[in-house]
Amino acid sequence: MSAPERTPSLDDAPIAVLAGGSGFVGGALREALRREGWTIRELGRTGPDARWSDPASIRRVVEGAAMVINLAGKSVNCRYTRRARDEIYRSRIETTRALREAIMDASAPPPLWLNASTATIYRHAIDHSQDERSGEIGEGFSVDVARDWEAELFADELPSTRRVSLRMAIVLGDGPANDVLFRLARIGLGGPQFDGWWFGHRRYRGIGPHASGDGRARGHRTRGQQRFSWIHIDDVVGAVQFIRDHPEVHGPVNLAAPITTANRTLMRTLRRVVGAPIGLPAWRFMLEPAMWALRTEPELVLKSRWVAPGVLREAGYRFAHPELEGALRDVWSRR
C-alpha cells in the first residue's frame, strides 16, 4: 500500500529574501512571489525579519534562502544636495556589502542574488543604443553610484551564488518618476524639453573613491531628441521571474523595453494619455526652477538614456508591454 500523499506545508515554500522592498517595485515583486507560493523574508532598516544594523540577523535570513533580491537605496527622486548625494551613495554601497558578507558566511548560501542597479550607468547617448556587451559607461555622480554599486555586488568569490545586476531604466508604474511626468503633462508643460545653458553647478559631480568627470554640469543640444528608456512594472516582475528560471543569465542585465522613444514622442504620448490639449515646450531655464519646486532633478528628462535589453532578448524574454503608449495607458488607468 502506497503512503498517503503529503499535503505541502509552509516549510516546503522556497524562501526569497527581499531587501529594501518598501517602494512600489518591491511591493509588486512581493505580491508576485507570494502568489507563486514563496515565503518572503524582509530585510530593511526596521525589519521585520532582519535589520541592516544587525549583521547577525542578515546572516540568518540569507541562510538557506533560494533567492535574494536587493532593492535598498535612498530614492533618487530628490535634489542632489551634499547630504542627499552622500545618502544615495552610502545607502547602496553599504547595504550591498552587508549582503555580500552575509552570503559569504552562509553555510547554505542562496543560489541566486539579484541586486538593483540603474541604466543611468551608460553615457548620454543620442547616436546609438547601449547594451550590456558594448555599452559605454558614462561619468559623473549617477554613473559613479552605479559603477561602485555593481563593484560591491561582484566583489569576492561566491562560487555557489549566481549574481545579476538589474540595470533598471525608468519604471512605469505607481512610482515617483511617473508622478513627475504626468504632472508636467497635466499642467500644460507636456511639450518637449530642450537642454541648454544654465548657471554652473556641481550637483552632478563624481562621487566615491574613483570619482569621474570634471564636476561641471554640461548641457546637450538635443532639441527634444534625447532618448527615454523605460520599462513597465509588469516587465520588471516578469524579467525577475525569467532570470530566476534561466540559470544561464548572469552579470549585468538591462531592464528596459525594446523600443526606446525620443523625448518629443514621450511628451506627445503623455498628452494623449492624460487628455491634455496643449503642451508647452520647456527650455532648461524653465525646467530648472520647475524641477526645484518639485524637489527633483531635470536630469530625469534631459539625459539621453538609450538602453537596449540585449541579454533579455537573446535569452528569449517576451515583453508584456513593448510599446510606450500602451504601457502609459495601462499605468494611467490604474491611478
Can you describe this structure in just a few lines?
This protein is α/β, with parallel strands linked by helices. The chain contains 11 helices and 13 strands.
Question: What keyword list fits this structure?
Answer:
seven-stranded parallel beta sheet; 13 strands; alpha/beta; two-stranded parallel sheet; 335 residues
CATH architecture: 3-Layer(aba) Sandwich
Count of distinct strands = 13
Report the sheet-strand fraction: 5-15%
Mean pLDDT: 93
Backbone structural class: alpha/beta
As a whole number of angstroms, the C-alpha radius of gyration is 21 Å
Secondary structure: helix percent: 25-40%
Total helical elements: 11
Shape: globular
Name the CATH superfamily assignment.
Answer: NAD(P)-binding Rossmann-like Domain
What is the H/E string? EHEEHEHEHEEHEEEHEEHEHHHH
Task: Estimate nothing, just give the exact number of structural domains.
Answer: 1
Produce the secondary structure layout.
Layout: E1 15-19, H1 24-35, E2 39-44, E3 50-51, H2 55-62, E4 67-70, H3 82-105, E5 112-118, H4 141-154, E6 162-168, E7 170-172, H5 176-186, E8 193-194, E9 227-228, E10 230-232, H6 233-245, E11 251-255, E12 261-262, H7 263-274, E13 282-283, H8 284-293, H9 299-302, H10 310-315, H11 324-333
Parallel strand pairs: 1-2, 1-4, 2-3, 4-5, 5-6, 6-11, 7-10, 8-13
Antiparallel strand pairs: 9-12
Helix pairs in contact: 1-6, 2-3, 3-4, 5-7, 7-11
